[in-house]
Amino acid sequence: MSLKNKSEKEEYLTKINEMELGDEKPAELDSTDLFTVVKERRSVRHYDPNFKISKEEIQELLEIAVQAPSSSNLQPWRFLVIDEQEMKEQLLPIANNQQQIVDASAVIAVLGDIRAYQNAERIYGELVENGTMTKEIKDFYVNSINQNYGSLSVEQATKIAMIDGGLVSMQLMLAAKAKGYDTVPMGGFSPEKFVEEFNVPENFKPVMLISLGKGVKAGFDKFRLPLNDILTWNKF
Ligand SMILES: Cc1cc2nc3c(=O)[nH]c(=O)nc-3n(C[C@H](O)[C@H](O)[C@H](O)COP(=O)(O)O)c2cc1C
Questions:
Q1: Which residue, judged by its Cα, is nearest atom 7 of ligand 1?
Q2: Can you name the CATH fold of 24-114+152-216?
Q3: Nearest CA to ligand 1 atom 23
Q4: Per-residue pLDDT reduced to its tens digit, 133-164
């Protein structure tokens, strides 16, 4: 799908609010069993604008989210949490005026650092410190990471950051649901404008925005393609 101009994009993203959602509220979970949380998470676009999630709770969710796997454990994810109303207002037009930007408690911009490999020494050094890895093995890993990741093109490094950023984002959304909150992932924003207006360092590539808050209307019922249509065993 290609949407030519900003107003078409905005219409595409905001038309969803004309759809009938009824009075159903987001599910309050009795169980935080993973299967339940995964099934009950939906993209929620209506939030209580007066409900504030504390910085401590957001940090708690991020602590869980960053347990996600990442390429060579380089953890390229970086987070910009936008929880001041004035800053959310500034983000609104950059994100095609999607109402959840200003109504949710916070918007978490998930970013991917294309120079995350520069932390290899710190990350693998920690494994030597705690006795998991010998210094020789650590040196081997750090050298090869520096060589391999250090010679990637921006495009290749960005692809890795996007994959890892997607994984951490999913964990964040599930953690939020398990804590009684709701989220919606958003790709409908201008990464260029966002980078410019929020002074994002040039090595941090936007992965997605995630609105986080107390939902007041449930998201849409889930429709998923039947597994039979999307599953192949062994070989195409
Ligand atoms: C990468 C990505 C970008 C998305 N961008 C938007 C967006 O900009 N605005 C929006 O309302 N929903 C957005 N969504 C949410 C999808 O529409 C939603 O996940 C999908 O319809 C399935 O519904 P569910 O999340 O309730 O299961 C995005 C989802 C993903 C994964």
A1: 186
A2: NADH Oxidase (3.40.109)
A3: 43
A4: 999 999 999 999 999 999 999 999 999 999 99
Is 0.85 topped by the overall pTM?
A: yes
Q: Ligand 1: which residues within 6 Å by Cβ?
A: 13, 16, 42-43, 45, 98, 184-188, 208, 219-220, 222
The Cα 29–Cα 41 span in angstroms is 10
Q: How far is the CA of 55 from the centre of ligand 1 (A)?
A: 25
pLDDT at 6: 73
Q: Which atom of ligand 1 is nearest to the CA of 16?
A: 11
**Amino acid identity at 120:** A
- Measured from the Cβ of residue 59, the count of other Cβ atoms closer than 10 Å reads 11
Domain boundaries, given as residue ranges, for the chain: 24-114+152-216
First to last CA, the chain: 26
Pick from 21, 39, 43 the residue to mutate for probing ligand 1's pocket: most ligand atoms within 8 Å of its CB: 43
Tokens of 140: 């081997």
Strands (DSSP E) found in 165-203: 182-186
Question: Which tens digit of pLDDT belongs to each residue from 64-81?
Answer: 999 999 999 999 999 999
